[in-house]
């Protein structure tokens, strides 16, 4: 892995993967939904859409055609703390990908007519999410933990906030959060670090951005920032559906917490696959649900631990009891050596196999730079291997002591 800081504070990270004929390029900006005010809800996601609508050098069709005509692919994603734009292409097309993505991010027109057109597209996207009970439950779960705060609100905003978002709000978000000191460029595959740096440098010389105002990157999002919380505890929503969706859990570890590897092993044992406890106890032994799993998510200063199941409405209480019961069993030391070995093996294989494609490696570089902590693949595997039974017992005990949140989306009575 190589890392450089270009004039203006742009950070470039690359990883050469020998034997490949492709590469994935990513442009990251550390702005997401938690950087919005209540009135701006969904503006970061709105802005992500608009950067595909044309620049002073390329039309929206030009941007789409650039990747289609070489058999590549390009997309973007907005999260709670970052937005990233990426493309996967053959190595011969890397210069085009870097130039096109950089043009999008640095020289978008943000025209009013495009804003109005895309507003309808985003409203349809939100409507599609509303038609997915599992997604509704996930949003309700965040609301149960964090309430009506930046972390608790949906990344895409609400239909009301999207309709109310003005061109001035979007342009203000762009001018305040997009710029050379905040830009992170990552690339993995058949790439040359020096060549990528030269491509980015050249592309930004021809952009709208002024790189003379600073030579160092902006500070990273602090992990000591105060997380706004408005704990609700429980959120229930009725829907015209057949199956109930339940999530239980609560606030959890931040991104750079030293216990993150332990949490990864814990959630794998609880609900990381067909041999996991939740799958075996809830589905295989009792037939109470088709899908069930455990997960954890992390942000710069906080995180989420959760367990999910989709079940018949009359089974909600029993399923919830089983979920927390499995955490209690782990806290009491009910864990065999073979179960621990199996979970570690599953994670080791997942980490290694997940790094077989350039997109995963590119994303890993971006997340590492955002958090300020890079761990090699060998290091990640070693951290997983070092997790012991006592670590898991303690963390499971900690999970039992968090403020428990619950979200349920169930059929209307």
From TrEMBL:
GO biological process: proteolysis
Ranges of biased composition (kind: Polar residues): 207-216
Classification via InterPro entries: Metalloenz_LuxS/M16, MPP/UQCRC_Complex, Pept_M16_N, Pept_M16_Zn_BS, Peptidase_M16_C
Occurrences of domain Peptidase M16 C-terminal (ranges): 166-347
GO MF assignments: metal ion binding; metalloendopeptidase activity
Family per similarity comment: Belongs to the peptidase M16 family.
Protein name: Insulinase family protein
Organism from which the protein derives: Scrofimicrobium canadense
Biological classification of the source: Bacteria, Bacillati, Actinomycetota, Actinomycetes, Actinomycetales
């Amino acid at each position: 892995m190589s890392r450089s800081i270009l004039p203006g504070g742009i950070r470039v990270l690359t990883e050469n993967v020998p034997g490949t004929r492709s590469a994935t390029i990513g442009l990251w900006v550390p702005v997401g939904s938690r950087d919005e005010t209540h009135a701006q809800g969904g503006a970061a996601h709105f802005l992500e859409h608009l950067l595909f609508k044309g620049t002073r050098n390329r039309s929206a069709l030009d941007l789409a055609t650039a990747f289609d005509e070489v058999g590549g692919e390009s997309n973007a994603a907005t999260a709670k703390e970052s937005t990233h734009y990426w493309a996967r292409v053959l190595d011969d097309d890397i210069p085009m990908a870097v130039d096109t993505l950089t043009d999008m991010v640095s020289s978008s027109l943000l025209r009013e007519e495009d804003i109005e057109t895309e507003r309808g597209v985003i409203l349809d996207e939100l409507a599609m999410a509303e038609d997915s009970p599992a997604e509704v439950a996930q949003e309700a779960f965040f609301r149960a933990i964090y309430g009506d705060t930046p972390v608790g609100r949906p990344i895409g905003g609400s239909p009301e906030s999207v309709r109310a978002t003005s061109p001035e709000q979007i342009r203000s978000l762009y001018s305040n959060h997009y710029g050379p000191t905040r830009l992170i460029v990552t690339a993995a595959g058949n790439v040359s670090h020096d060549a990528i740096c030269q491509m980015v440098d050249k592309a930004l010389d021809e952009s709208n951005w002024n790189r003379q105002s600073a030579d160092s990157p902006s500070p990273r999002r602090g992990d000591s920032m105060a997380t706004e919380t408005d704990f609700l505890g429980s959120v229930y929503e009725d829907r015209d559906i057949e199956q109930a969706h339940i999530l239980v859990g609560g606030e959890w570890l931040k991104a750079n917490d030293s216990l993150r590897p332990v949490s990864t092993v814990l959630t794998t044992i609880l609900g990381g696959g067909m041999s996991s406890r939740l799958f075996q106890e809830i589905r295989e032994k009792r037939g109470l649900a088709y899908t069930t799993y455990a997960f954890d998510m992390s942000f710069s200063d906080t995180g989420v631990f959760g367990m999910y199941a989709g079940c018949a409405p009359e089974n909600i209480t029993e399923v919830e009891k089983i979920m927390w019961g499995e955490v209690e069993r782990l806290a009491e030391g009910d864990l065999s050596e073979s179960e621990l070995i199996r979970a570690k093996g599953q994670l080791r294989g997942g980490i290694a196999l997940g790094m077989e494609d350039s997109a995963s490696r590119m994303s890993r570089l971006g997340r590492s730079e955002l958090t300020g902590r890079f761990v090699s693949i060998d290091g990640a595997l070693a951290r997983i291997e070092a997790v012991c039974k006592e670590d898991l017992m303690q963390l499971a005990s900690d999970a039992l002591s968090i403020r428990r949140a619950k979200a349920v989306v169930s059929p209307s009575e």
